[in-house]
Amino acid sequence: MSFGTQRKLTLWKFYCSHVCLQVSNSATQSTDIHYWIGNASSQDEQGAAAVYVTQLDKCLGGSPVQYREVQGCESAKFKSYFKNGLIYKKGGVGSGFTHVETNVYNIQRLLHVKGTKHVTAREVEVSWSSFNLGDIFLLDLGKAVIQWNGPQSNRQEKLKAVLLAQDIRDRERGGRAQIGVIEGGQEDASPELMKIMTSVLGQRTGHLKEPIPDDKPDQNQTSNVKLYHVSDASGQLLVQEVATSPLTQDLLSSTDCYILDQGGSSVMVWKGKAASDEERHSALSRAVGFIKAKNYPSNTKVEVMSEGGESAMFKHLFKSWKEKGQIQGLGKTHSLHAQPKLAAQERMVDDASGHVQVWRIENLELKEVNPSTYGQFYGGRLLSSVVYLQQSQQTTDEVTASAYQAVNLDNKYNGAPVQVRVVMGKEPRHFLAIFKGRLIIFEGGTGRAGVVNPDPGARLFQVRGTHEMNTKATEVPTRAASLNTNDVFLLKTHQNVFLWYGKGCSGDEREMGKAVADLLSEQDKQIVMEGQEPAAFWVALGGKAPYASDKRLEKEVALHEPRLFECSNQTGRFLMTEVADFTQDDLDEDDVMLLDTWEEIFLWIGNSANQYETQESYSCAVDYLKTHPAGRDPGTPITTVKQGYEPPTFTGWFNAWDAHKWSVSLSYEEMKSKLGDISQITVVKSFNHID
């Protein structure tokens, strides 16, 4: 069974248990095995499927990631394979798996549809007693599928149900069935369809049930993460706790197996390449045994993976993760707009060569800054086209004013700018590139015209960067403890200007240090090599003192696959739900979406997102960083992007981004209108056999 061009999925069926093999056609060529357990499956069936999973994994060299799926509690990744929805037949068999016989019309079933991202439909009793006011129901009668929308269902749920109905029509009926839609709150507008429903369900008596609350989505986001070592050296299974979050990759040894417990929401088993065959082959059964020992629910999610084939979710639980053969850097100049994927990886909206405007918050109002002082930062400032909110040593009122004025600027440019919150010291690459190596952050003072700053005496600046696109100078306390052997420092006094080169800095860093020094002072600079400092240098710093003198190792950017979350209050509560194997189609115009690229958080605002979702999304992003089990940096940049104004740093994380998608896509109302005139659906004669 094929699902588009990005993946292939093969199925082996064990009645009410299934084994699914998914092979990605992407560059990573990842392979996943999903072991699905239906509610009605027996222990023998589950055992047979588990044995087959082990054999299949061995046949494929142990590289696949194994997932244990339980009916009704499947992972987002598993559900993502069935874009139009997954239907459970009575007895637990999912029709998303089985061979479909087209042109079969002798059918009468009622499907209870739930979900806005990953839709599931469960067969229920064909009776009005199965209905409720908040969900959507499909009455499938072979030659006609009637969709009944609960009065409290939302537009996205209705759209997904229509797509599921169309999938039933096209895939199971060869396109020969008709579809009709009834709005539950306006049943009088569809008398012919209601007549059909009444003939099947009987006359409705009494009131329909209240909505069934949606289960709280599993955000896979809990700080209670523990790593256990698994061993059978003594002849019996021993599980010993090794560490709690934040975890580091060096905790994993290739000779052993480990269980990672994510607070009971999921259990992951990691198999080292040099672990014994017995330990590797029994990984899945041990995970199940661990769940029982911990008294976790039987539907707890399980993943089993081998060293080198870790899932994105597993790697996200570690503070850093390095891939074998990982390299860093561009190597040559690229056009970022022409290559949005590269732009996203490099966190650059463009080459920062556009027009720049800078404002300062003065008396809580915007004050345009003289272009001659661009790059010199003292407090809260704003830039437009990309609107940056730069937060340093500001008062609460100034921080509030910055945010307020950013909204005003956003409105001025009709919502087109991308808004980025930047914390001093956490400036993103594009922000640095705007100033072409001229960014200088002063510890105190002001850039206001006519204001004389107090004489600070000696001043010390730390310079970091290897070229004009990534360099900044930050004022630090004027004392020896501020020095770092890996960097360049500029020490400015009334008599001298010292340019200090640490032993660990590179030639490029020294050149940028000279360039920044010329911006700060026209005086002649005295080059000082670490270990050869003159007495006047130490006097200006208040005397010698210990400082960071360990040479840094060559740092490489950790590879973490991006994750997408839907932020919505359509169920009455504000919730975040992860979207697996996401595409542009998963960006819901009615919601706010959070894209986590590890070095940056994007908040994508759909055109129809309500005000509450928009307001709550930012605080939710902050909480997401604070509670992340990998101990994420709370100063990670958070970028707000409006639908239709996505920069390449955002679009590059999506495969085959279509800039015109929303101008040609059909809304629920448009799709409903294309189903045909309801009055022309004549299917009553198809049910003459129904009494």
From TrEMBL:
It comes from the Eukaryota. Residues 31-78, 121-188, 240-315, 393-432, 471-538, 576-650 form the Gelsolin-like domain. SMART domains: GEL. Keywords: Actin capping, Actin-binding, Calcium, Repeat. GO terms for biological process: actin filament severing; actin polymerization or depolymerization; barbed-end actin filament capping. GO terms for cellular component: actin cytoskeleton; cytoplasm. InterPro entries: ADF-H/Gelsolin-like_dom_sf, Gelsolin-like_dom, Gelsolin-like_dom_sf, Villin/Gelsolin. Transmembrane segments: none annotated. CDD domains: gelsolin_S2_like (cd11289), gelsolin_S3_like (cd11292), gelsolin_S5_like (cd11288), gelsolin_S6_like (cd11291). One of its GO terms (molecular function) is phosphatidylinositol-4,5-bisphosphate binding. PANTHER family: VILLIN (PTHR11977), VILLIN-LIKE PROTEIN (PTHR11977:SF30). Belongs to the villin/gelsolin family. This is Villin-like. It comes from Cyprinus carpio.
